[in-house]
Amino acid sequence: MINKQEIGALILRMALGVIFIGHGAQKFQGGIDNTVGWFDSIGLPGFLAYIVAIIELVGGIAMLLGFATRIIGGLFVFVLLGAIVTVQFDAGFIGGYAYDLALLAIASYFLLNGSKLYSVDYYISKARNK
């Protein structure tokens, strides 16, 4: 029987996955070298742009599929904390870190709870328990 909490988690998982796919794809479509340059310009090592872009794109896809949701949730938490501390905090709450804070809360939920409904994780777990 599907319960409201599982449906809510599925909706959040889909939204988070789509948002991160969009952010990751944007970094590659805009030219990853531009993102590397921007990271350098704010005092971060340029190679981190590749790591962040891959976490966002691949992690977003994994989140949509419900694959390794706790691990991906944890990676998203690190990315979002980094974004808030290095860039968004100085811009203030509204127009700054409010959006990232909401995504951080959602990612934290998946870090702590995972997601079962229509998730690869659930089907893998179910197959192992047979």
List keywords for this structure.
single chain, about 130 residues, about 80% helix
Question: How is the secondary structure organized here?
Answer:
Elements: H1 4-29, H2 32-41, H3 47-65, H4 69-88, H5 93-113, H6 120-128
Helix pairs in contact: 1-3, 1-5, 2-3, 3-4, 4-5
Describe the structure.
There is one protein chain. This protein is mainly α and 130 residues long. The chain has one domain. The longest helix is centred in the first third of the chain and has 26 residues. The two termini are 19 Å apart.
**Total domain count:** 1
Tell me the number of strands: 0
Question: Low-confidence runs (pLDDT<50, min 5 residues)?
Answer: none
Strand content: under 5%
Total helices: the number is 6
Instruction: Estimate the global geometry from the Cα principal axes.
Output: globular
What summary fits the major beta sheet? none
Gyration radius, in Å? 16 Å
Structural class comes to mainly alpha
From N to C, what is the helix and strand string?
HHHHHH
For the record, give the distance between the C-alpha atoms at the N and C termini, rounded to a whole number.
Answer: 19 Å
For the residues shown, what is the average pLDDT? 95
| Residue share in helix | over 70%
Quick overview:
The chain has helices spanning 4-29, 32-41, 47-65, 69-88, 93-113, 120-128. The chain has six helices and no strands.
